[in-house]
Automatic annotation (TrEMBL):
This is Transcriptional regulator. Keywords: DNA-binding, Transcription, Transcription regulation. InterPro entries: HTH_HxlR, SCP2_sterol-bd_dom_sf, WH-like_DNA-bd_sf, WH_DNA-bd_sf. Residues 9-105 form the HTH hxlR-type domain. GO terms for molecular function: DNA binding. Signal peptide: none annotated.
């Protein structure tokens, strides 16, 4: 049984659910559209499958998520109205984190898998105003087998590929993982990254101009740091 705070206070009762390790990130993932177990795993890659399964069962018992069985053994997970009421808290945590936590990243916080997963589900497939647009993203600081990724923007949907999908590339991007994370978080503006050659974008001018629209950075990216010791990245 999960240890609680032993208080009748509603703040304590809510914190027993929301503040349990990993739960806030699971609410983040469910709020961002993840529904399947494998999708949730991509958003919390350091969480073991057994722990994820246990947390999902606990949240279902608390009435904040529902499990919908599909054909066969697969299932999807969805926030209930009670669970959806946690989403403003998730956004508030993100806002506070942007304002008050350090912007410099430790090496153990550089997670290319989480970055790519967030990009795949966030970028705007229709930003380039053409039926199919292929974006090749090369991380210059990764080994060859992990360096190059392709985003296939086709028919309003985006697919991330580790193997060359076989289409002509429309836009080439080269950047380090750290700088791409800083761009994604809003620590480094796209304009500054391009001006300082920390991001190289090669392709037709109209596609380069549409890069910001394609990245589709969320509202948290626009929140500046309020720390007195803040230094630019």
């Amino acid at each position: 049984m999960r240890k609680g705070y032993g208080q009748f206070c509603p703040v304590a009762k809510a914190a027993e659910i929301f503040c349990e390790r990993w739960n806030a990130l699971l609410f983040r993932e469910l709020g961002a559209g993840s529904k399947r177990f494998s999708e949730l795993q991509r958003g919390v890659p350091l969480m073991s499958p057994s722990m994820l399964s246990r947390r999902l069962k606990e949240l279902e018992q608390e009435g904040v998520i529902e499990r919908h069985a599909d054909a066969g053994r697969s299932a999807t997970y969805h926030l209930t109205p009670a669970g959806e009421e946690f989403l403003p808290l998730v956004f508030a945590l993100g806002t506070w984190g942007q304002r008050w936590t350090r912007r410099q990243l430790r090496d153990d916080e550089i997670d290319v898998g989480l970055l790519l997963w967030d990009m795949e589900r966030t970028v705007r497939a229709d930003a380039f105003a053409q039926q199919r647009a292929i974006v090749q993203l090369e991380f210059s600081d990764l080994p060859p087998g992990q360096r190059t990724w392709w985003f296939v923007n086709d028919g309003g949907a985006v697919q991330l590929c580790l193997q060359d999908p076989g289409f002509e590339v429309d836009l080439y991007l080269t950047v380090t993982v750290r700088d791409m994370i800083h761009i994604w978080r809003g620590d480094l503006t796209l304009r500054r990254a391009l001006d300082e050659a920390r991001l190289d974008a090669h392709g037709p001018r109209r596609l380069v101009r549409a890069l910001g629209a394609w990245l589709n950075l969320g509202p948290l990216a626009g929140i500046p740091s309020a720390r007195a010791d803040h230094s630019t990245v």
